[in-house]
Amino acid sequence: MFKMLRYLRPYWKGALILVVSIGIQAWGTLRLPTLMSQIVNDGIAANNGTGDMSFIILTGLKMVAWAGISALGALSSAYFSAKIGSAIGRDIREDLFKKILSFSISEIDDFSTASLITRTTNDISTVQNTLIMMLSMMLRVPMMAVGAIVEAVILAPDMTWILALSVGILVGLIIVILAAVMPKFMLYQKLIDRINLLTRENLTGLRVIRAFNNEKYEAEKFDKTNKKVMKTDFFIGAVMGLESPLMMLIFNGTSLLCIYIGISHLEFDASYLGKMMAFMQYAIQVILSFFFLAIIFVMIPRASVSAKRINEVLKVNPKIKWKEKSIKKPEEEPSVEFKNVDFKYAGADEEVLEKISFKAKAGETTAFIGSTGSGKSTLINLIPRFYDVTSGEVLVSGVNVKDYVMDDLMKKIGYVPQRGFLFSGTVKSNILFGADLTNEKEMEEVARIAQAEEFISRLDEKYESKIVEGGTNVSGGQRQRLSIARAIAKKPEIYIFDDAFSALDMKTDKKLREALKPVTKNAVVLIVAQRVSTVRLADQIVVLDEGKVVGKGKHGELLKSCKVYQEICQSQFSEEEYEREVRDARA
User: Fold this and answer.
1) How do residues 244-270 score in pLDDT, each as one tens digit?
2) Each residue's pLDDT tens digit, 270-295
3) Which residues contact 431 (CB under 8 A, 6 or more apart)?
4) Class (C level, CATH) for 335-553
5) What residues pair up with 391 in beta bridges, in sequence order?
6) From 1.20.1560.10, 2.60.120.280, 3.40.30.10, 3.40.50.970, which CATH number describes the 2-314 domain?
7) In the list 258, 315, 476, 511, which could disulfide-bond 503, CB 3.0-4.6 Å?
8) Cα 152 to Cα 276: distance, rounded to the nearest angstrom
9) DSSP 3-state assignment of 116?
10) What is the DSSP track for 465-526?
C-alpha cells in the first residue's frame, strides 16, 4: 500500500498545505479543554464561588476563536486530502490503463479481462478512498493523540494510568480484528473477479445460453459464487461491526473512570473539578484518535490487497518489447515474408506453426486456407506482433517486425479481425477510428467500397447513427463491412482480412472484392478464409494443415498437386462442380 505513496510526489505543495492545515486544526482543538478548565477553576470558582463573569466571557471568546481556527484547518485539510487523493486515483488509473494497453494478448490472458476490469475500477477506488483517509487522518491522529496525552499528563499526572489502560485494550482490539479479517480481504477481491467474469461471460454469451436453454445452470453457477461473496462480506462486516460497540464500551468506561477518580479527589482539592473535566476531554480525544487509527489500520490491509493487485499489473514486463527507434529503413515496396517461422503458445508443449515460409508481394493477394485449427489466424497474428515467433523471422517490407517502433509497424497494417468488433459511438466514429480522412466524401467512398453504403443510408441518422459497445445493434455482416471500411480508411500498405468475409453472402463478397482491387493495387493483401470461393482468384494460396505449409500456389496448381486442397474443394463443391474445376486446372 505504501508503494502507492510514490504518486504523492507531484502534489508535494498541496501536501505541505495539508500538513500545516492539520497542525492548525490539532492545535486549535487541543487548546479548548485547557480553556474550559480555566473557566471552571478561575472563572466559575473565583471570588469564593461567586465567579468572575468578565474572565468567563473573555475565555469563552478565546474558545470560540480557537474553535473557528480549528474549523478552518479542518475544512482546508478535508479539501486538500480529497483533492490530492482523487488526483492520485486518477494517475494510478491512467498508468494502469496504459500498462494494460501495452500488454500482448498472452499477458491479458494471464490476468483475465474480468480481473483487469476489477483492478482498474474496484481496486483503485479502494486504494483512493484509503489514501484520502490516510492523508486526512495519519497526521492529525498522531498530533491529536500525542498532544492530548502531553496536556493530560501536565494537568493530572495521577490519572494517566487510565489512558494507558484504555490505549492498551484498544491496541489489543485492533490486533484481533486485523488478524480475523486480513485473510478475507484477498478472498473477497478474488470472488469479485469471479463475479465480474461470470457477469461478462453471461452477457456476451446470452444468445448461446438461451439457445441451449441453460439459464438455470448459469444462474446456479452465479448463485454459488454470489453466496461465497455474501458469506465473506458478512464475516468482514460482522467482525468490523463489533468494532463500534467495543469502542463505545472503552470510551464510556474511560469517561466513568475519569469521573470516579476526579470526584474522589475533590474532597482534598476543589480545583480538581476543572482538571478532571479537561482530563476527561483529553482522554476522549486520545481514545477518538486511536479509534480513527483503528479504522485506518483496518482500511489499510484491505487497501494493501488492492494495491498489491494493482502493482502486480504495473510491474509486469511485457513479453513483447518494442524498439524506441526503428533500426532499419523499410523497403519502399511493401511486402510480408515469413522465414522458417515456428510458434507455440506460452506453456504449450507442441508447436502451433512449424517451418512456415512464404513471401507476399505488393499488388498481389495471398490467401490462407486450411481446416479448423490449422494455424491460419495464429499465423496472421504474428504480423502485427500480437504474439512473437518462437523461432524464425517475420519481415514487413524487408525489416523484422521486432525491429520496428510500434507506431511505424501499425501504420502499415489495416487489420480486420475474425469477429468484427465495433466501439460505442457512431457509424462515422467507427469508420474513422485510426484514420486520417479529410472530408465526408472520402468517408462515403470508403463505405461504398466496403459495401456498407446501402445499409448506412437506411439508418435514421445515417453516419451519425449510434453504435453500441461491440456493435450488437447491427448484424454480423454489417459489423464486418464497417470493420472492413475502418481498415480501408486507414490507407495501409498491408491489408489483413482474418476470415473477414465469412458473414457476407456470395454476391456481396464478390462485389466487395471487386471494389477492393483499385484500392489495394499497390498494397499487400492477406486473406484468411474458409471458403474456396473467397480464395480461388488469389495470386498465391498457402494451404495449411496442422501448422505446416502443405501447398503453395494458385487455385489451378493446387488442384493438381495438393491433396489437402483437393479435399477442401471436394467438401465445398458438388461432384460435378469439382470435376469441372479439375478439368479447367488441367487444361
Assistant:
1) 777 778 777 777 777 777 676 656 655
2) 556 666 677 777 777 777 777 777 67
3) 443, 446, 447, 463, 482, 485, 486, 489
4) alpha beta
5) 342
6) 1.20.1560.10
7) 476
8) 10
9) helix
10) -EE-GGGTTS-HHHHHHHHHHHHHHT--SEEEEESTTTTS-HHHHHHHHHHHHHHTTTSEEE
